[in-house]
Design a protein that fits this description.
The protein is α+β, with helices and mostly antiparallel strands and 751 residues long. Helix content is 64%, strand content 9%. The protein has helices at 2-29, 35-68, 75-80, 89-95, 101-123, 129-150, 186-201, 203-215, 221-251, 262-287, 291-314, 327-350, 367-390, 407-427, 438-477, 479-486, 491-527, 531-541, 543-567, 677-694, 702-725, 729-750, and strands at 570-576, 583-586, 589-600, 606-616, 622-626, 629-632, 640-643, 645-648, 652-661, 667-675. It is globular.
């Protein structure tokens, strides 16, 4: 019953999305159609959009209910059911909906449909051609995603469980499968849906860009209709990446937060082009420029989002996150990428003559020019990351074809490019539009430069007293860590890159803080407000600008954290006897074994734990205790999960992972010292808050306000026409007044 119902709903959603796309795009282009019939078709298309979302919502609800009620009639539930006695089990039952490939793909399809319905609900009274065409494009994408569920058994979450795996009462006949233990963590409850919300939302800017090309409307209206969706999606994509980094750091047991894995890179690619897209949208709306950039970045962001799915489901590239190879998914997602790229190229060539930039770039030393360079850096970086990610699958005659690119190669490129990007962020707000006056720029930069010099001096003190000795200690110790360090270039280059990154971070930090303080000071001076009220009012009246400065400030903090936590990490493996009192030293820390234990939880998973005390090597002062452990799953083919122990200090983390027993019976304990890693989490939090504040509600733009007025006026005219045709003239007059008033009030509420 449940598999049949779920499959029927999936097919219904696919068919309905295709029909709605045909109706909406067809009615938009059918200018010769009688207006009443055309409007009826468009209304039917909107209703079918809602119907698609309802069908997919029911699919999600069915699977969720199966997990919550332990209904194992679906093979997907059997494979992903959380076999645990954790207090978080109810939440794991919810997260199990997207724990596997089938559920994650269904969630993604549903979220695209939810975004599409939200736009349809917002625009249904206006039903303008741009929104109609955009909804049609989005529904085509929903149909293609739904088709991957319908036509591939390995993607279908509604495959029935084989009878031999179930008892007569519907319970499982033994321990079978279950959720991957690595996914049973609070961060993985939030990370996938946040990332998928970001991915799904990026569909709408692409759909509106295509709608502008279909309708030939090169005004800023299409950007105004989707830019808040773009920012909203970017917020969740950023949150998703941050949560993924936290999960990787505390769960995977390797002591890092970014490994340049294919799936990590998929998020990074779309994030980089998303930065270019949002900046381009801002200039498109405010100054009528970057029109091609806006359309291009919206398209390439969507393509990169799909590329991530293509990578993980095609078997094209090996990844710790990848699913088993599926030919149907490969062809469908490849088709989506190719079709999106070809449709955009054809559209941009066809409308080439209509795309006229209103504000040309006179000088690269201007805000316009810095935005252009930023977009170029972001898009080229994203393309480079994509190429290096898939290089192992490329023909050998292509550059790097057939080669697996190690993390060190990505770091060698990312570090200088990332520093350049941050330098652009620091300087850009101080430049003038079109052309920068040198004297004005010098005045604007004077205070940030002086304050930045003070911050830079503090960072250089840290560099000389901490990082230089640590670099020498890592190289002297030899091993894999020393090799990885020396492969990044000569010592003088490595240190120069560190100094440049610290100088850039200092300037970005102080310039962002200076602009925020200047805005607050201006309100205090002009409005007579106290500092707290002035700051609140600044974010209220200029959310995009103030939020942007706060975001930049957070990026500066992250840059400092990245220098320490990725460039100066000390790592050593201690092989210690299990006897109490055995110990070893790593850096300034002495780790001593105080005990070991083995135990089994209610799910029959076995744990091996090592208890350690940590003391300061110089003073002997006790700093804390750690209990890293290894979990061996009873239901997942003996999969091993490392539960690391972490001691956090202001300037660094001590990360310890128990990796099991050596052949001689000694304990293998991996120890890492991660400098400044706390700044990564703090800076990411500041940046996310800044983006959220920039997303704050703002006044309706003139073009959108005109849309609402037109809708109200159209409703009034229609009511008036109906009233004149009525025999009851007085009733008709009342009808005109009431209808117009109601429509106008509705338009005001929406505005």
């Amino acid at each position: 019953m449940i598999p049949t119902l779920g499959n029927g709903l999936q097919v219904f959603a696919m068919v309905l999305s295709l029909l709605s796309a045909a109706v909406l795009i067809g009615a938009t282009k059918a200018r010769g159609l009688e207006s009443g019939r055309r409007e009826s078709l468009i209304n039917a298309g909107y209703l079918m959009v809602f119907g698609t979302t309802i069908a997919l919502t029911l699919c999600i609800v069915i699977i969720l209910v199966c997990f919550v009620t332990s209904n194992f009639s679906l093979a997907y539930v059997v494979s992903n059911y959380p076999n645990t006695d954790s207090a978080l089990k109810p939440l794991y039952e919810v997260s199990a909906v997207w724990a596997g490939r089938q559920g994650s793909l269904l969630l993604w399809t549903w979220l695209i449909s939810v975004f599409t319905s939200a736009v349809a609900w917002r625009r249904m009274r206006v039903t303008d051609d741009l929104s109609n065409a955009a909804l049609g494009v989005a529904q085509i994408i929903v149909a293609l995603f739904a088709a991957t569920l319908v036509f591939s058994e390995s993607n279908n979450p509604f495959m029935a469980t084989a009878p031999e795996f179930l008892n007569a009462d519907g319970t499982l006949a033994g321990a079978i499968g279950g959720m991957n233990p690595l996914l049973m963590h609070w961060a993985m409850i939030l990370h996938p849906p946040a990332t998928f919300i970001g991915y799904a939302g990026m569909t709408l800017p692409f759909a509106y860009a295509m709608a502008a090309l279909i309708c030939g409307d090169m005004s800023a209206r299409w950007v105004e209709l989707c830019d808040r969706i773009a920012v909203f999606s970017f917020i969740f994509l950023t949150i998703g990446m941050a949560l993924g980094a936290v999960w990787a750091y505390v769960v995977l047991g390797w002591g890092g937060f970014w490994a340049w894995d294919a799936v990590e890179n998929a998020s990074l690619m779309s994030w980089l082009t998303g930065v270019a897209m949002i900046h381009s949208f801002t200039l498109y709306r405010k100054r009528g420029c970057f029109k091609r950039w806006s359309m291009s970045s919206a398209t390439i962001t969507f393509i990169f989002v799909v590329l991530g799915t293509f990578i993980t489901r095609s078997g094209l590239v090996q990844s710790v996150h990848a699913f088993a190879e599926d030919p149907v998914s490969t062809y469908f997602f490849l088709a989506i990428m190719v079709a999106a790229g070809m449709a955009f190229l054809i559209g941009i060539l066809y409308r080439h003559g209509q795309i006229v930039e209103d504000d040309e770039i006179e000088s690269l030393l201007s805000k316009n020019g810095s935005y252009y360079i930023t977009n170029l850096v972001m898009c080229v970086s994203a393309v480079l990351v994509a190429y290096l990610t898939v290089s192992s699958a490329l023909p050998t005659w292509m550059p790097l074809g057939g080669s697996v690119i190690a993390a060190g190669a990505f770091n060698a490129v990312a570090r200088p490019v990332g520093t350049l990007f941050c330098l652009l962020m620091a300087v850009c707000p101080m430049l003038g539009w079109r052309k920068t006056d040198g004297a004005a720029f010098a005045r604007n930069m004077r205070v940030p430069a002086i304050a930045g010099a003070v911050v830079f001096a503090g960072l250089m003190f840290l560099f000389v007293t901490k990082f230089v000795p640590e670099y020498d200690a890592i190289v002297a110790a030899g091993g894999a860590a020393a090799t990885a360090l020396t492969e990044q270039g000569p010592k003088v280059y490595y240190f120069a890159l560190t100094v440049l990154a610290f100088a850039t971070a200092s300037l970005l930090l102080t310039s962002s803080a200076y602009l925020l303080v200047r805005g607050v000071s201006a309100r205090m001076r002009n409005k007579g407000e106290n500092p707290v009220v002035a700051l609140a009012q600044l974010f209220r009246h200029s959310p995009a600008q103030a939020g942007g400065y706060l975001t930049h400030l957070g990026v500066a903090v992250v840059l400092v954290g990245l220098v320490g936590s990725s460039m100066y990490v000390q790592e050593q493996t201690l092989n210690l006897s299990a006897d109490q009192g055995q110990g070893g030293q790593v850096g300034s820390y002495v780790l001593t074994v105080t005990g070991t234990r083995e135990y089994t939880d209610s799910a029959s998973d076995m744990f091996k734990e090592v208890q350690l005390s940590v003391t300061d090597a110089a003073t002997g002062r006790e700093l804390g205790t750690l209990a890293p452990s290894m979990e061996v799953s009873a239901t997942n083919s003996g999969q091993q999960t490392l539960h690391a122990g972490v001691l956090s200090f202001p300037l660094e983390d001590l990360f310890v992972a128990f990796q099991g027993l050596n052949a001689d019976g000694t304990l293998s304990i991996n120890v890492k010292i991660n400098p400044l890693i706390m700044l990564n989490w703090i800076g990411a939090g500041i940046s996310i808050v800044g983006i959220i504040l920039a997303f704050a509600p703002r006044r309706a733009t003139p073009l959108l306000a005109a849309d609402e007025r037109a809708a109200a006026e159209g409703a009034g005219r229609a009511a008036g026409k109906a009233g004149r045709a009525s025999k009851a003239g007085r009733a008709g007059k009342a009808g005109r007044s009431g209808s117009s008033s109601k429509k106008t009030k509705g338009a005001k509420r929406r505005g």
